[in-house]
Write a structure and sequence with these properties.
Length: 247
């Protein structure tokens, strides 16, 4: 595969940080999204190519871990590379580094190709260029797994709720809430608590005008956020989070 790795420098802005100097989760996912899109176009598997066939890339789940926080106005280098594709799911990893090569954030993601008209998954292994002799390391040690709860978990006893109706600026070119906006909703639901590790499973798209209710729940297995629309019994997304320990 040509160009199996891709990197780009990004200057960080004040808007990328919260009032306590922590990098917004949305900013992290925005960097991932941008560099992935640029690389996909270079590989000939980007939106401009697939949209002509009524196919789009859809993010299934993503996870990141903050190793070290950058500072306002720092320039970071975002690196990305695809892994061996499955029949349907394609994996892509990320590193955010400072200009000296120190790792700031590690991330990974699962993507699928979807037919716009039928909403059916499209086999990606026949479209995804990959050299099986090219060995790629993983940014995170473990492969992404679906977020599960043990029997008996009940969000009706959640410690808090956050409600939001996605606005025009939350909707992307595919007509639904962009993946990065979920991170912003989660940050608000947690009232700005600094996040060290977060995984988001995107289960069902959120469309313009739908009311999204986020429930926060903590138990012995960790901290979770569930989002669902208009009192539906089905979750639109699930997130599992580890908070940063403040000194």
């Amino acid at each position: 595969m040509s160009n199996p790795r891709f990197s780009k420098e990004y200057p960080l802005r004040t808007s990328d940080f919260d009032r306590n100097g922590h990098l917004h989760p949305q900013s992290i996912l925005d960097l991932f999204q941008d560099v992935a899109g640029l690389h996909a176009e270079l590989l000939g598997i980007g939106r401009d190519v697939f949209i002509k066939r009524n196919i789009i890339w859809v993010l299934v789940r993503t996870k990141y871990t903050v190793i070290k926080e950058p500072s306002v106005y720092d320039t970071v280098v975002v690196r990305t590379w695809p892994l061996v594709p499955g029949k349907v799911v394609c994996q892509r990893d990320y590193l955010i580094e400072d200009t000296k090569g120190n790792i700031l954030v590690r991330g990974t993601s699962d993507w699928v190709l979807m037919d716009i008209n039928t909403k059916a998954m499209v086999k990606s292994d026949i479209m995804y260029p990959y050299d099986e002799n090219e060995k790629m390391e993983r940014a995170l040690d473990t492969r992404l797994r679906k977020i599960h709860f043990r029997d008996g978990h009940d969000f009706s006893g959640s410690e808090g709720h956050y409600k939001v109706t996605p606005a025009f600026s939350d909707i992307d070119v595919n007509g639904h809430v962009n993946n990065t906006k979920y991170a912003m909703y989660i940050e608000n639901a947690l009232n700005g608590a600094p996040i060290e590790t977060m995984q988001i499973d995107y289960l069902c798209e959120v469309l313009p005008g739908e009311n999204l209710d986020l429930s926060v729940f903590e138990n012995e297995e960790g901290l979770f956020v569930r989002g669902r629309c208009d009192d539906s019994d089905t979750a639109n997304f699930m997130a599992k989070i580890t908070l940063k320990e403040e000194n």
